[in-house]
Amino acid sequence: MNSGILKYIASWIILVLIQVLLLNHIQISGLINPYLYILFILTLPFGTPNYLLLLLGFLLGLNVDIFSNTIGIHAAATTFLAFIRPFVINLISSRDVLELNQAPRISELGFAWFFRYTVILVLAHHLFLFFIEVFTFHGFFYTLLRVLFSSALTIVLIIISQYITAKEK
After folding, report:
1. Distance, CA of 46 to CA of 116 (rounded, Å)
2. Which of 25, 76, 108, 160 is most buried, with most CB under 10 Å away?
């Protein structure tokens, strides 16, 4: 079996376990809930076919839903994240700079590019997740505050994880 596939399987398992065993139990003032598991979708290679991206997004969210006892909320939000990812990549990158087998990582593309990419996708994911969770616009500003605070912590955790797992050149 390809070592790259094994690396992604291990990443999937580790991120889901960190999410359901540790991060799901962190709630600061009811406003901050970090969702590190989306890092899996963020770091898939640029050449990942869209159908596979959507399927992996759905299955990843479904895994978190099963262990978190939520009813499809994470599956929907992560599928949405996988759906908009190619558009965000095209928005912030020129096509000739990116290689199809390259994965979006700080070590490969630099901090500024990865930070913009992460902020846009994490905010989109969290907006979708939290508003589908409450399924109303009542308490709009409270939900928006949850989105902003949770996104900030998630982005910090993603950036830290990128530096921890960075390959030395």
Report:
1. 16
2. 76
Q: 9 CB contacts (<8 Å, ≥6 apart)?
A: none
- 146: in domain: yes
In a domain, 169, yes or no: no
Report the predicted TM-score, pTM, of the whole model to 2 decimal places.
0.92
Neighbours of 82 (CB within 10 A): 26
The domain of 149 spans 3-164
Report yes or no: 31 and 150 within 8 Å, Cβ to Cβ: yes
| Per-residue model confidence as pLDDT tens digits over 104-147 | 999 888 899 999 999 999 999 999 999 999 988 788 999 999 99
**What is the tally of structural domains in the chain?**
1
Q: Is 44 domain-assigned?
A: yes
Task: Choose among 85, 60, 75: nearest CA to 132.
Answer: 75
Structural contact between residues 86 and 50, judged by C-beta atoms closer than 8 angstroms: yes
Name the token pair of 22.
């540790």
What is the C-alpha to C-alpha distance for residues 52 and 58, in angstroms, rounded to an integer?
Answer: 10
